[in-house]
Amino acid sequence: MEDTSRGRYRLIYPEFGPVDAVLGFVLFYFIVGLATVVAVDVLARSAPDLVPEPLSTWAAYLLWIVLALVIIGQIAEQARSNPRVFESERERRRFLDDRRPTEQQYLWWAGWVFVGGAVAYLTFSRFVPTFAMVIRFFVDLFVAPVPTRPFRVADAFWFVLFFVAYSVMTRGLDRLIVGSLRSLIADIYDSAD
Hints:
Shape: elongated
Strand order of the largest sheet: 1-2-3
Number of domains: 1
Strand content: under 5%
Helix content: over 70%
Oligomer: single chain
């Protein structure tokens, strides 16, 4: 987009992060849903006035608040850097060329998606019961001073490994998609000549 009145050149250029944020919210949604089910199950005996309402309503409010924060955060992140203004077409082209992802970067990002996705997939079946056990532990701690089952090192290992692998996968996927958009924008400006 050209602003000829001031002799400046503008460019809307995507920042990294939106795909990572969306997939992070998807995981958060799953975790809140699982935590709600486990908490309702545990509290049904000791605090029936909390379950299923108002606990599930609070969980729904939490999801809406976090979704709003994710959307506002991503809009703010994209708006902070855009539009970019250049004094000349040559300066804009240099900017696009300098930030065009390389083939090696695409390979690294694809590797992140593959390795992170594979590890997240393989550890998911251990993560779910471990997370449910963690929620049960804290809800029991809330209800009774002595929880039913303490944490084990192996539980913490699967818990952390899944989160790290999922984060690596989403970061790589974000880089692949946003990097492809950046390449497409550069190609569009190259073909405009």
